[in-house]
């Protein structure tokens, strides 16, 4: 059974400026959790709040059935830590807490994992893998629009969407 506590890691961090997605919320008939890059949903659970604080209408995302090829989450490498680039760019001495690393000044290094024709960040794949009976869509179909852009996944009690990483060749040197 999915609980609100299991959904919390998919929400925006508590120190984020996006208060409207810092906790799971309801948009009938589902409970959702998102940080803007990943979203999960399951039938309404717990006493979460209705979407009254400005969270977007997520019911219109690409939840529909399309060609899918759900498989187990691939083997994930051991986490490798690196200095938080956000903390390096800004002087965090003014007691603010970095929303990228939670003030730890280190974060898990971003690693690209191939999922079908796309790539996903290992951080998000770890979140998905922690869900019961998680499986991810490896479909190699022509992705035509927004509804087909996200990588779909399902788990016992719900489903989700993950934004893939931009192809490396489209990124400016030093950015990710």
What is this structure's SSE topology?
Elements: H1 4-7, E1 25-27, E2 30-34, E3 38-43, E4 49-50, E5 70-72, E6 81-83, H2 85-89, E7 106-108, E8 112-115, E9 118-121, H3 122-129, E10 135-137, H4 146-149, E11 151-155, E12 158-162
Parallel strand pairs: 1-4
Antiparallel strand pairs: 1-2, 2-3, 3-12, 5-10, 6-7, 8-9, 10-11, 11-12
How many domains? The number is 1
Give the H and E element order: HEEEEEEHEEEHEHEE
User: So how many helices?
Assistant: 4
Count of individual beta strands: 12
Folded structure, characterized:
By secondary structure, this protein is an alpha+beta fold. It has one domain. Helix content is 12%, strand content 26%. The protein has helices at residues 4-7, 85-89, 122-129, 146-149; strands at 25-27, 30-34, 38-43, 49-50, 70-72, 81-83, 106-108, 112-115, 118-121, 135-137, 151-155, 158-162. The chain has an 8-stranded mixed β-sheet, with helices on one face. The chain has a two-stranded antiparallel ribbon with strand order 6-7. A hairpin with a 3-residue loop joins strand 2 (30-34) and strand 3. 22% of the residues are buried. The mean pLDDT is 80.
Summarize the structure.
By secondary structure, this protein is an alpha+beta fold.
Question: Which terms would index this structure?
Answer:
single chain, 12 strands, 4 helices, two-stranded antiparallel ribbon, alpha+beta, 26% strand, eight-stranded mixed β-sheet, 176 residues
């Amino acid at each position: 059974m999915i609980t609100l506590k299991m959904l919390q890691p998919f929400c925006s961090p508590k120190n984020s400026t996006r208060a409207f997605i810092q906790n799971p919320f309801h948009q009938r008939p589902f409970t959702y959790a998102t940080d803007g890059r990943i979203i999960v949903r399951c039938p309404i659970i717990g006493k979460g709040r209705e979407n009254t604080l400005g969270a977007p209408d997520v019911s219109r995302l690409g939840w529909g059935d399309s060609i899918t090829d759900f498989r187990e989450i691939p083997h994930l490498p051991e986490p490798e830590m690196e200095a938080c680039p956000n903390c390096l760019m800004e002087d965090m001495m003014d007691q603010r807490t970095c929303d990228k690393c939670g003030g730890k000044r280190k974060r898990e290094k971003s690693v690209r994992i191939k999922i079908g024709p796309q790539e996903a960040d290992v951080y998000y794949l770890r979140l998905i893998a922690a869900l019961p009976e998680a499986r991810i869509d490896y479909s190699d179909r022509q992705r035509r629009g927004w509804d087909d852009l996200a990588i779909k996944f399902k788990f016992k009690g719900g489903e989700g969407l993950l934004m893939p990483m931009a192809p490396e060749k489209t990124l400016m040197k030093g950015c990710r």
